[in-house]
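quick one before i forget lol
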Amino acid sequence: MNFSSVRIITDDVDRLINFYEKVMDVSAERPAPVFAELVLPSCTLAIGHSQTVQLFGAGSAVAAENRTVIIEFRVHDVDAEYERLKPFVNEWVKEPTTMPWGNRAVLFRDPDGNLVNLFAPVTEEAIKRFSSRR
């Protein structure tokens, strides 16, 4: 089995695409007006309009209601990303901080309120833990 993607359901696809194109520094692929994918070598972030939910079964997902998932991206330099994204992020949850498990991280919310974490392993143990991962 291969992990393929995470999909965010939203009422405003264009707004989230614009936001995540800036965060991820890639252009979205738009196979349909109600759906987009932002593809990186290590993961794909899909964004679907709430209208697409009915294709999976009514009520299976509700836009902007997530309060349990954190979308995480490993970056080279957390502090540099924080500075780069300051003009685009409206809600910072945690400024750059080194966490007890050895990652430097910054946490913010996307326009729909989903949590986004940018992190980099910085301690010897954390670097070792991530050394075999892409």
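fyi The beta strands are 6-10, 29-32, 35-39, 44-49, 70-74, 91-98, 103-109, 115-121.
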